[in-house]
Design brief:
32% of the residues lie in helices and 27% in strands. The chain contains 8 helices and 10 strands. The strands form 2 sheets. Strands 6-7-8-3-9-10 form a 6-stranded mixed beta sheet, sandwiched between helices. The longest helix is centred in the middle third of the chain and has 15 residues. The protein is globular. It binds adenosine-5'-diphosphate (2 copies). One adenosine-5'-diphosphate binds next to α1. It is found in: Cell membrane.
Length: 229
């Protein structure tokens, strides 16, 4: 993986409404960094800057040593695996949805991705397995199953950087815990950025960054944060 660095980043959606107010942090290469903070703090905005929906109005976002503005769109796309809060699946087979980022993916690769995302047993249990249509009558994927498909989809891509933007925030806490546990294997060796609403879901992160009102208020591992409070 490569480190993702925010260096004194400023950004606002309008001229008089700065959302990120000089934000600096580094998600170290190969580590799991969690970004937590209350609603409206600017967490999704951070994700949008990493995806380059927008460029900062001040400071810089870097991937490795490179300013993100100098990274080609193609290279950025290859570097990032994103799991959003609400995964929208194609009206196609589950296998197609998992293999989508890699059109030449073999059935073996698709099944291995399903295994890593811990949804393989569920899919194999369906009468048509990976050939089951997502919109098929009678098949309704739960929120957790959809997110596991989304995780399998990022595995296929084998990206150096994984970005989870509130990927489990809408799920019940038991499902959330299961998915985050299965993520550890998927995330291993990658730079993993987990944006979360609740600190309790990311206590195992190497570093937790607490954002409030567009500023970093605390950072450290869970034990460090407890010590300060
Ligand atoms: P979080 O993800 O922490 O809830 P966001 O990054 O979504 O926070 O939002 C930070 C602030 O920016 C909020 O005040 C929000 O209303 C505002 N905001 C987010 N998206 C837009 C947008 N597209 N246009 C204008 N304001 C926005
Ligand atoms: P999420 O965290 O799921 O992205 P947000 O509340 O940040 O949810 O944004 C949902 C959508 O609404 C986004 O497309 C964002 O651009 C837009 N949005 C959010 N806040 C505002 C705002 N204050 N003004 C205009 N658009 C906004």
């Amino acid at each position: 993986g490569a480190a993702v660095n925010f260096d004194d980043v400023r950004f606002g959606y309008g001229p008089d409404r700065e959302v990120l107010k000089g934000l600096s942090f580094t998600a170290e290469a190969g580590q799991k960094t969690a970004i937590v903070g209350p609603s409206g703090a600017g967490k999704s905005t951070i994700a949008r800057l990493i995806l380059r929906f927008y460029d900062p109005t001040g400071g810089a976002v870097r991937i490795g040593a490179a300013d993100i503005r100098s990274v080609t769109q193609e290279s950025l796309r290859a570097s990032l695996g994103v799991v959003p809060q609400d995964t929208v699946l194609f009206n196609d087979t589950i296998g197609y949805n998992i293999g989508y980022p890699k059109p030449d993916a073999t059935q073996d690769e698709i099944e291995r991705a399903g295994q890593l995302a811990q949804i393989h047993a569920f899919i194999e249990g369906l009468p048509k397995g990976y050939e089951t249509l997502v919109g098929e009558r009678g098949l309704k994927l739960s929120g957790g199953e959809k997110q596991r498909v989304a995780i399998a989809r990022t595995v296929i891509k084998n990206p150096p950087i994984l970005l989870l933007d509130e990927a489990t925030s809408a799920l019940d806490s038991e499902t959330e815990a299961g998915i985050l546990a299965s993520l550890n294997e998927v995330a291993s060796g990658r730079t993993c950025i987990v944006i979360a609403h609740r600190l309790s879901t990311v206590v195992d992160a190497d570093k937790i960054i607490v954002i409030e009102d567009g500023r970093l208020v605390e950072s450290g591992n869970h034990r460090d944060l407890l010590r300060e409070n």
